[in-house]
Give the backbone structure.
Amino acid sequence: MSNSNSKNNKQKRPEISGDIRIAIFSSILLLIGALACVWPNVTMVELAYKHQSLDKENKKLMKERRLLRVEKESLQSLFRVNAIAKESLNLKPPREGQVVTVFLKH
Amino acid sequence: MFKFKKHSNSVFHKGVKTRLLFVSVLLTLFGAGLIIRLFYLQVVKHDYYVNLSEDQYLKKMPMDFERGEILDRNQNVLAANIDMKSVYVEPLKLLDPKKSAHAIASVLGLDSDEVIRKVSSTNRKILIQRKSPPAKMNQLKALGLPGVIFEKEQKRFYPKRELASQVLGFVGTENQGLAGAEYHYRKLLRGESSSTRVAIDGEGRTIRIPSSIYGQTGKIHDVVLTIDEVVQFIAEYHLKKQVEKHKARKGIAIVMEPHTGEIYAMASVPLFNPNNFGRDPKRWINHAIASAYEPGSIFKPILAAAALDAQIVDTHTQFDCENGRYKVGRKTIGEASNHKFGLLTVKDIIAKSSNIGSVKIAEKLGSRTYHDYIRRFGFGKKSGIDLSGEARGKVHPLAVWKEQSLASVSFGQEISVTPLQMITAISAIANGGNLMKPQITKALIRNDKIVKTFKPEAIRQVISQETSRKMIEIMEAVITDGTAEEAALKGFEVAGKTGTAQMTKEGVPGYIKDSYLASFVGFAPSKAPKLAILVMIDTPTEGGHYGGQVAAPAFREIAKETLRYMNVTSSKERVFILDHA
């Protein structure tokens, strides 16, 4: 009798664990599904925050770059360079024979 | 009993029926009310509620596309934008208006009374100064005055200052193009402001940005000119030097690539600084395209080219130059500087710039053919260059030519041409006979990519290649045996023509005494021209007034330095070719 009971128990156990398994499996699937739905949104929001701060930095750097570029162009003004060459450095245009042209073979 | 029952039953049914009907009507009315409300909310007030909800989770993100830049052919910046700030005051927020006004006025260099008047206003916000210099702005910020606010604006900035100022032009306070390329390309260069809506979180941080805004630059283009910064500087520098040396009223120089019509430099002296363009509109005029002059003797190559091309004469055909006096109708033609020439060939007529010889060639050529060639060389109509304010010049119709007109036009009188038309025509002689459309714009850039390139445009073949070759030979003689020794370049063969034209004044008959236009037009190296250069000096008052004396030296210096810059070596120069390794 006891033998047959234990046999019965052994036979019933897998049925219960099977239901639980299905329930757990379903829950996991549901969780994954939910995460799959939510995750891109969370990532997108995080990326948007990051984008915003990078955009701010980019704008600041672009502004600085533009100013430096204009300053460089301004300093390279040939009227200014010519005045410095002649007045400060006492440079003079080359005389005849002082110009040598060098071509580099590629 | 039965009767009563029947009666009470029917009364009962009737009562239920009435009540049911009443409830049904009520329910129907309620349902209808719901539907009407739903329609009202969903359809009639749809936009209102959508906006209301969007206002809670969307915000406007400003998108400013600044004015396009102007670049030279090597993409050096000629016109750019810099961020500036304008100063405003909110009078109601000022703690001590008078004291604040004094402080603001002293930092910004304004009149104290004027600032006090402004801050005493009852307006919510008052403009004190637009686009203030950054240094002053920082000084003002450091004062920490309450009620003083700063708003970002953009200012056009020309980093090369006077360089190519008449070509570039300038902009007004609202950054609108007012002159030069700034005006001509106003639609392509114009900055834009727009906005897009982005989703925000509870703290106002952006959480979603529409992908459509990436890489957007609006409709703004950067304009790349054919001008070369270095060549422009060379032209301006030597032109200015010559104008100052001869105490002239003004000077014009154009450097053109004769095969393509690309303009490397276009200078008008006196220059002006477009960053602070002042109040003298005369300085803003680009005389190279907007003014027309009687060309004088630099027009003689056009006559010679026409006569050679029409095969009326050859380079060695001789003409009697009448010993310096020749009568055409009632007018007596003489030579410049009272020269007296006898028999001269066509080549010598141009080299020595004989007026009588020119008249004789023109008489042989005939009015109709000459007039036709003048028009074919592009005189009397706009060249179509991409700049505003181009003059047409004046070529009288053949029907109104008088008895002496043919003679006058043969040596460049009774006709007016713009410097640009002149250099374009001479380029056609230099390049084998093709009249090229003068080009000032090389490309358009949008979003850092070249979106349009302007290709050289041949208008027509004006003269044959053979005529062009003969003309080059004739114009070389002007430098070697003629009036333009000063234009000679050591190590290069140069071709050109001098001109000394008497000046006229609009509305005043005849010529102005002692007022001349000294000019030189030429190209180098003559057999394979890389450059065509025109120099005009208006009313030189010291050190001579002839084209060969005043304009030719400027041509020589501009040509010498530009050819060196372009790595075109002279025969006198030492050249080494080195292996890269």
Remarks:
- The mean pLDDT of chain A is 83.
- Chain A has two helices and one strand.
